[in-house]
Structure formats: C-alpha cells, structure tokens
Amino acid sequence: MQGRLDGRRILITGAASGMGLSIARSFAAEGAALALLDRNEAGVLAFAGELGALGLGCDVADRAAVSAAVARAGEALGGIDGVVNAAGILVTKLFDELDPESWDRMIAVNLTGAYNVVHAALPMLRAAPSATIVNIASVSALMPMAGTAGYSASKAGLAMFTKCLAFDLGPKIRANTICPGVIKTEMTRYLWENPEHAARASERVALKRLGITDDVARAALFFSTEDSGFTTGTEFPVDGGFSWR
Q1: Is 54 in contact with 35 (CB distance < 8 Å)?
Q2: Candidates 151, 161, 223, 242; catalytic one
C-alpha cells in the first residue's frame, strides 16, 4: 500500500519532542521526506537519524538561522511542499506577574516563529503544484483561561495569521490551524503528573481523558493530505470536546 505522503517534502519545527516528534514519526511512516528543526540540536539530530530525515538545530525566533535552515532543507529535499509549525513555548502567569521577557519570548516563538518559517519557505511552497501549511496553536486561541494572557494572545494570533495565509496563498497553498487541548507532553507535565490535576482536567472534557501526541499527529496528517483538499483557513480543535462547551 502506497504511503499517503509519498513524494512529499515536509519541514516540521519543534520536532525533537512532543507533538512535533509524533507528527514527524507519523509523516515518515506515510512516506514523506522530512526536514526536522528544533532548538534542541542534539535531540533533533538523534530523532532525525532514527527516521532517515534531515535534522537541523534552529531557534525559530532567530530569523537569520531560520532562513539558513530552510534553505538547507530545501536543497537537501529538492524543494519543500509542506510545513508543520509545531514549535512552541508556554509560560503561565497571571497578567500582573507576566514579565516582558516572557511575553516577548512567547510572541517570538509561537507567532513570529511561524512567520519566519513560512516566509523563508514560501518560494519553494509556491513552486510546488500544491502545498500545505499546518500551524499548531492551542485551545487557548479559542477561549481565555487564567494565567495565559501571553500564551493565548500568541496562539490566537497564530490562528488569525493562518486564516490570512489561506486567503493570500490560495488556491495552490492550503493553510490550517490545529488547536490542541491538554496533551501529554513535557510542556504539560506539571498537570498530568499530578493525579488530582489530571483527573480534574479529564473531567472537564467530553471524552474524559487527556490527549496524547498521536491525536494531534493524526490531525496534522489529515491537513497535509488530499483528505482535506477542500479545507483551508480553519481552526480544528483536538481537545476531547472542551472548547465547544
């Protein structure tokens, strides 16, 4: 059986751990040629070797480093026709405790980082017969929660950025946003390692469990194939039925 991504050349950020790594594994299994970026250079190189992909250490907030990494990825893959922006950081603080450095860093990584990657890859995306962009935002982009002013603002901005990309880059390039709920990653370890907190979070969603990274990877695969060929500019919650209540 032919892989659903055979012949595709896809760049994934935040690929050394969590959702980005699960997406990379899923895409590799479906036949994609991959370039994996992460600021954790040792981690991304190790996993890239495991998957037969190109691994590059890169902080997506560093525009010059992104430009160089994307150019190297395009040269190695013979072009780029898909991007998944999974790099992200979370700082939870009530607004009166939210320092400017934390605010600036979340905007730089979660929002401007996606701009940097898409902007650098755009000539190659345009050169492809069709291309896809998948941006990983958060349920925090859809509804406010205490202590997430900076994070929610960065992710809501990412969702609107994606809508604008869908208009500006269509019809050859489709762009969609995934909005995960609580997914078991290092970023949310503080929550799911505590049984009481995990039980409370699970009870708040219709499916009565926390998400796993493979839940997000399956959504990213959908948006990177022709299964979603008539879908662009949307936000897709992967949150167990939390944000619609």
Answers
A1: yes
A2: 151
Per residue in 126-142, pLDDT (tens digit) is 999 999 999 999 999 99
pLDDT (tens digit, 9 = 90+) per residue, 24-47?
999 999 999 999 999 999 999 999
Distance of CA 145 to the CA centre of its chain: 21
Residue with tokens 């995306």: 125
DSSP string, 9-63: EEEEESTTSHHHHHHHHHHHHTT-EEEEEES-HHHHHHHHHHHT-EEEE--TT-H
Match 């662009």 to its residue by tokens.
232
Determine contact, residues 17/88, Cβ cutoff 8 Å. no
> Are residues 177 and 236 in contact, defined by beta-carbon separation less than 8 angstroms?
yes
Q: How far is CA 5 from CA 68, 80, 155, 184, in A?
A: 25, 13, 27, 26
Query: What amino acid occupies position 151?
Result: Y
Closest CA to 180 of 146, 206, 142, 125: 142
Distances 160 to 104, 211, 243 between C-alpha atoms, Å? 19, 24, 17
Percent of the chain that is helix, strand, coil (3-state, to 5): 50, 15, 35
pLDDT tens sequence across 67-109: 999 999 999 999 999 999 999 999 999 999 999 999 999 999 9
Longest dimension (CA), the chain: 55
Q: What one-character DSSP code corresponds to residue 62?
A: -
Is-catalytic flag, 190? Answer: no
Residue 171 pairs in a beta bridge with none
- Measured CA to CA, the distance from residue 181 to residue 211 in angstroms comes to 7
